[in-house]
């Protein structure tokens, strides 16, 4: 089911099915009236990810390799991520990384900092995560720290929009207007997807942030993380 759905939207997906062993991961998400959510996750086969699963040739052909911070909870998955990052760097490709959530940052703060400084070109984090990473109470103070640690940081701030930092270059991106925020599940993933699509198509950072915000706004307007609107139509005005 997942393989079919992923390929149906045009994603290149060659991961073979696993015969026997752990099943596909599952996540129960409980959404409250304020659009916030509580998750109960079974990682399943995700815990089996190891360095041998990394397709180095695919990474060498990719403009950007995206790494999820949650994977740092599994030692072999961590090895797989580091292998992917080093492969991308050796091939002159970019590495993007998301800090995932404040609890993941608390668990792996020092490792994340070293990782960002040594391997990450594009960092995604929300306001709570970036403040936790640098152990500061002020967003602007965290922003000053992160601009020294990686090439590009895309920092989301919920209804305040987002801030994209590239050295001395700073872009403040307004949040897209939504009639009602229903469910924030998948907003960060949608933001990263929009940003990286625009980035890999050569758009300036301001438009990368704009497209990211457009996609995130669509996702939070309904239940579930899958887009219900035609994303190509939503993206067209930004890409024109």
Please provide a written account of the structure.
This protein is an alpha/beta fold and 240 residues long. It has a single domain (23-239), classed as UDP-N-acetylmuramoyl-L-alanine:D-glutamate ligase. The protein contains 9 helices and 8 strands. The protein has helices at residues 2-8, 56-61, 75-90, 102-119, 127-134, 139-146, 187-200, 205-219, 231-239; strands at residues 26-31, 37-42, 64-68, 94-98, 122-126, 152-156, 162-166, 169-173. α4 packs across α5 (127-134), α5 crosses α6 (139-146) and α8 packs antiparallel against α9. It is globular.
Mean of all residue-level pLDDT scores: 94
Number of domains: 1
CATH architecture: 3-Layer(aba) Sandwich
CATH class group:
Alpha Beta
Here the CATH topology equals UDP-N-acetylmuramoyl-L-alanine:D-glutamate ligase
Shape: globular
Number of helices: 9
Main sheet record: 6 strands, mixed
Topology:
Blueprint: H1 2-8, E1 26-31, E2 37-42, H2 56-61, E3 64-68, H3 75-90, E4 94-98, H4 102-119, E5 122-126, H5 127-134, H6 139-146, E6 152-156, E7 162-166, E8 169-173, H7 187-200, H8 205-219, H9 231-239
Parallel strand pairs: 3-4, 4-5, 5-6
Antiparallel strand pairs: 1-2, 6-7, 7-8
Quickly describe the structure:
It is built from 9 helices and 8 strands. The chain has 240 residues and is α/β, with parallel strands linked by helices.
């Amino acid at each position: 089911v997942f393989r079919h759905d992923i390929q149906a939207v045009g994603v290149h997906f060659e991961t073979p099915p696993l015969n026997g062993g752990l099943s596909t991961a599952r996540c129960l998400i409980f959404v409250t009236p304020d659009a916030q959510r509580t998750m109960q996750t079974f990682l399943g086969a995700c815990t089996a990810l190891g360095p041998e699963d990394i397709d180095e040739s695919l990474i060498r052909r990719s403009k950007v390799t995206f790494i999820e911070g949650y994977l740092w909870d599994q030692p072999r998955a961590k090895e797989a991520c580091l292998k992917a990052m080093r492969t991308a760097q050796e091939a002159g490709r970019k590495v993007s990384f998301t800090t995932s959530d404040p609890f993941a940052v608390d668990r792996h703060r020092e490792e994340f900092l070293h990782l960002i400084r040594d391997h990450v070109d594009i960092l995604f984090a929300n306001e709570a995560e970036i403040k936790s990473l640098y152990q500061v109470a002020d967003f602007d103070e965290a922003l000053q720290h992160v601009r020294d640690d990686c090439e590009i940081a895309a920092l989301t701030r919920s209804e305040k929009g987002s801030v994209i930092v590239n050295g001395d270059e700073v872009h403040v991106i307004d949040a897209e207007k939504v009639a009602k925020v229903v469910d924030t599940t998948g907003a960060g993933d949608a933001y990263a997807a929009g940003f990286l699509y625009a980035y890999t198509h050569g758009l300036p950072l301001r438009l990368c942030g704009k497209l990211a915000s457009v996609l995130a706004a669509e996702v939070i307007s309904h239940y579930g993380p899958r887009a219900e609107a035609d994303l190509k139509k939503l993206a067209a005005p930004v890409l024109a």
